[in-house]
Design brief:
- The complex is a heterodimer of chains A (about 270) and B (about 280).
- By secondary structure, chain A is α/β, with parallel strands linked by helices.
- In chain A, about 30% of the residues lie in helices and about 15% in strands.
- Chain A has a single domain, classed as 3-Layer(aba) Sandwich (Glutaconate Coenzyme A-transferase), CATH 3.40.1080.10.
- In chain A, helix 1 packs across helix 2 and helix 2 crosses helix 8.
- Chain B has about 280 residues and is an alpha/beta fold.
- In chain B, the strands form 2 sheets. In chain B, strands 1, 2, 3, 4, 8, 9, 10 and 11 form an 8-stranded mixed β-sheet that branches. In chain B, strands 5-7-6 form a 3-stranded antiparallel β-sheet.
- Chain B has 10 helices and 11 strands.
- Classes of the chains: A alpha/beta (about 270), B alpha/beta (about 280).
- At the A-B interface, helix 3, strand 8, helix 4, helix 5 and helix 6 of A face helix 4, helix 5 and helix 6 of B.
Chain lengths: ~270, ~280
């Protein structure tokens, strides 16, 4: 699956340099970037809010290719074009109103994530004091009740994919349904992307499903790294390769220094 | 018009133990750090603090001054987790009322508008309702009949904020890209203390939209050049990342010993000599 793309991508072989080990095989990080980009396909004119490097590359790739109307920020208060030009103002107070208005799709991180998509970034240990104090709920409650929320997990492990999260920050499908129509009305978790695969909740009980394996990953490995049973479709697809144009954008325009590979680690090749 | 200028000592001298205090800025951005340092030099303690938390919370929590924190997060931005705050939390050193960012903003608005609550969708289904069992919901009286969280007003006894410019009467101007919630903090508080990078005689030629805070909501004005240090104060200066990294990796006692023993002038001098040692 990570086969040699030299013939297909129209690139000069030399461009790969040392970063890609002498070939232009698609790296795991590049599959992750494309899998993240796909989260924003068809979203139209909404704010794409990627948290973390790989989701950021994905959002920008989506805007440069199949989702050109996406809005992106400079990470602070400005809405910016691909060349860095300013097209609008979005300080925190307006940002939170945009969230409530629903014209946004965020890809957040997760310290813990369960089979119905409940997410925790606040603390480890549900009691007082916490075993580990993490960031806090931040905007996870408002995000998940108002607009699509996807997740990015750079190191898929049973410590992240747990049976039950210690504190529900991002609301999952079971909790949204139990909280009533006001909670579930705009609730949607389109996808979870990890370094091993793509996951969604396209099952009758809205529990997590393995939507695709990244090339080079086995189903056994995903199962061993997940603390609950996953629904697995038959046949099981692989995450698609980036096209030649997408590879060129990732490697030459969006991340010429190859920072993406550092986030995923050398294992993912 | 009255002259409201005062020293940092005089401003924090009006605070009392047990008060509810709001701190402006956001994370490690434009925090009124000089006022927080001045507060550390008093014996005021048992505070309830309302903040989009950054190192302001780390300093006060490490020094044991916070009884309860009301916040959606505490972060140093470039260092995701605030180590001194975490340590205080993990040893049971302070209680936390954890609310969502939108709940926080609407809570400030409720207080600024003298309303007991405002409805928000955020919070339903999440554990903010579990960790704060005093939170209530409210049902729309209209046809939709939807249920929302009734975010209680975040009223405070005093607010501390830092802006780029202010006049002697308490009018404040921000020059960076984001006002954060500083005007709302001042409006939500009984008393508000505004520190600024530079005191000015007026705002001739200013872009009117930068005049964020009106004097009617300000009790005291304090000129504290570099007073947001080590947080960012764009466009004047960015975050002092090197200093922040050192703060985040230095045991609290050692940090306090070197930087927090004297007044604000001594702090700024200690920061300068730390940078000189580092680059030597």
């Amino acid at each position: 699956m990570t086969g040699d793309q030299n013939d297909g991508n129209g690139r000069n072989d030399g461009n790969d340099g040392n970063q890609h080990g002498g070939g232009s095989a698609v790296s795991r990080a590049e599959h992750c970037v494309v899998a993240c980009a796909e989260a924003w396909r068809g979203d139209g004119e909404v704010l794409a809010s990627p948290i973390g490097l790989i989701p950021s590359l994905g959002a920008r790739l989506a805007r440069l290719t199949f989702s050109p109307d996406l809005l992106l920020t400079d990470g602070e208060a400005l809405l910016t074009g691909e060349d860095g030009s300013v097209e609008g103002w979005l300080p925190y107070r307006r940002h939170l109103e945009l969230v409530s208005g629903g014209r946004r799709h965020v890809m957040m991180g997760a310290s813990q994530l369960d089979r119905h998509g409940n997410q925790n970034i606040s603390r480890i240990g549900g009691g007082e004091p916490p075993e580990r104090q993490l960031l806090g709920v931040r905007g996870a409650p408002v995000n998940t009740l108002n607009h699509p929320v996807s997740y990015w997990v750079p190191r898929h492990s049973p410590r992240v994919f747990v049976t039950r999260v210690d504190m529900v920050c991002g609301v999952g499908y079971d909790r949204a349904a139990a909280a009533g129509p006001s909670a579930s009305r705009y609730h949607r978790i389109p996808r979870v992307v990890s370094d091993l695969g793509v996951f969604d909740f396209e099952t009758p009980d809205r529990s997590m499903r393995l939507a695709s394996l990244h090339p080079g990953v086995t189903l056994d490995r995903v199962r061993a790294a997940t603390g609950f049973a996953l629904t697995v479709p038959e046949p099981l697809p692989y995450t698609r390769d980036p096209g030649p144009g997408e590879l060129r954008l990732i490697r030459e325009v969006l991340d010429p220094e190859g920072l993406r590979d550092r986030e995923i680690g050398a294992v993912a090749r | 018009m009255s002259d409201k200028t005062m020293t940092p000592e005089r401003a924090v001298g009006e605070l009392r133990s047990g008060m509810t205090i709001g701190i402006g800025g956001w994370g490690s951005r434009r925090k009124p750090m000089a006022l927080v340092r001045a507060l550390l030099r008093t014996d005021v303690t048992e505070l309830t603090v309302i903040s989009c938390g950054g190192p302001d919370i780390g300093l006060l929590a490490a020094a044991g001054r916070i009884r309860r924190l009301i916040a959606p997060f505490v972060t140093l931005d470039s260092v995701p987790l605030e180590p001194h705050y975490r340590a205080a939390r993990e040893r049971g050193g302070l209680a936390l009322t954890e609310i969502d960012e939108a709940m926080f903003l609407w809570g400030l608005r409720a207080a600024a508008n003298r309303l007991p609550f405002l409805p928000v969708r955020a919070g339903l289904g999440s554990d903010v309702m579990r960790v704060s069992p005093e939170l209530r919901t409210v049902v729309s009286p209209y046809e939709d009949g939807e249920e929302f969280v009734a975010v209680p007003a975040l009223r405070m006894d005093a607010a501390l904020v830092h802006l780029d410019r202010a006049d002697r009467h308490g009018n404040g101007q921000y020059l960076g890209p984001d006002p954060y919630f500083d005007d709302l903090f001042c409006a939500a508080a009984e008393r508000a203390y505004l520190s600024c990078e530079r005191l000015v005689d007026g705002f001739a030629g200013a872009v009117p939209q930068t005049l964020l805070i009106g004097r009617h909501s300000v009790t005291g004005v304090v000129e504290t050049p570099n007073g947001a240090h080590f947080t960012s104060c764009a466009p004047g200066h960015g975050r002092d990342e090197a200093f922040q990294r050192m703060y985040a990796t230095t045991p609290w006692d050692a940090f306090a010993e070197r930087f927090l023993q004297g007044d604000e002038k001594a702090y700024q001098a200690a920061v300068e000599s730390w940078h000189q040692e580092r680059t030597r």
